[in-house]
């Protein structure tokens, strides 16, 4: 088990890497192992200007977003409102993205298709190296005339290929679009065997059976969490396996681990499930012709 308190993390201000907009503030909450296919990156982003722009694109990894404050526009695929949870499947196109000022939590992770997920250091190093070979404009990498490769390419795609030194492959999407979940539309249901604990089951997603849910604990109630995934305290305080938690404390459980939350006051949690290694293909998808360009802007 790992526990991190977001309010203790340093906040970094930087330009978006490969996307358009002014500086964004972010804190890395935790990350996985870049050598493993189930690697992940878990962070909070503070878009104070609300001007970050991404063209219509897709990725070879999966994502969860939770909107803490404000809204975030996913273009023709939908609009995420405050308090909503969004699941973005690997391979599914979405965007163009823009938004008003907002704060969101993002979890990006290697999905069932087996492409893994780039480490932040790998991503940053490749971004700096590619700036010597071309320019990044509005989410697109444009190579210099004397540099081999596509003239224009989605920025993340170009970074991924630079790191991996092979053409990127995208899986056939298990869902064609992002899935938007509004917890306010669900009813609280009692959790069997846990007095004073209620659940909103928002979904069980993909072939990896990723659970998305929120939980509510009454004062004095205990909830035992298990299985690989992340829990975020949205409100309340108490303890988890002897360590104190408070609003925006986060807990990560690895496969086979469990943790018991005991509430001192009414507590709400949001949960993102993550795939286990046995749910991930050992053979990543082969490069294939795309139905629409990865850098489409409409």
TrEMBL record:
It comes from the Bacteria. Residues 278-298 are annotated as: Disordered. InterPro entries: RmlC-like_jellyroll, RmlC_Cupin_sf. This is Cupin domain-containing protein. The lineage of its organism: Bacteria, Bacillati, Actinomycetota, Actinomycetes, Pseudonocardiales.
């Amino acid at each position: 088990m790992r526990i991190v308190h977001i309010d203790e993390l340093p906040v970094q201000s930087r330009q978006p890497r490969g996307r358009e907009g002014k500086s964004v503030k972010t804190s890395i909450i935790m990350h996985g192992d870049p050598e493993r296919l189930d690697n992940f990156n878990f962070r909070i982003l503070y878009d104070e200007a609300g001007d970050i722009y991404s063209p219509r694109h897709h990725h070879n990894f999966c994502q969860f977003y939770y909107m803490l404050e404000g809204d975030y526009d996913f273009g023709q695929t939908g609009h995420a409102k405050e308090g909503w949870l969004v699941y973005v499947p690997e391979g599914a196109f979405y965007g163009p993205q823009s938004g008003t000022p907002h704060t969101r939590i993002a979890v990006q992770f290697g999905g069932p298709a087996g492409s893994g997920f780039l480490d932040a250091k790998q991503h940053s190093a490749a971004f700096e190296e590619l700036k010597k070979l071309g320019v990044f404009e509005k989410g697109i990498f444009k190579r210099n005339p004397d540099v081999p490769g596509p003239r224009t390419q989605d920025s993340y795609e170009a970074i991924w290929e630079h790191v991996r030194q092979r053409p990127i492959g995208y899986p056939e999407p298990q869902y064609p679009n992002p899935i938007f979940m509004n917890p306010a539309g669900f009813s609280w249901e009692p959790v069997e065997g846990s007095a004073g604990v209620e659940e909103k089951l928002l979904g069980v997603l993909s072939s990896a059976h990723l659970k998305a849910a929120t939980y509510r604990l009454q004062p004095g109630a205990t909830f035992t969490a298990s299985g690989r995934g992340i829990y975020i305290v949205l409100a309340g305080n108490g303890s988890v396996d002897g360590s104190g938690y408070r609003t925006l404390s986060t807990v990560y459980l690895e496969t086979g681990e469990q943790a018991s939350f005991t509430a001192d006051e009414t507590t709400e949690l949001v949960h993102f499930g993550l795939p286990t290694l046995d749910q991930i293909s050992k053979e990543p998808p082969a490069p294939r012709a795309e139905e629409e360009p990865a850098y489409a802007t409409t």
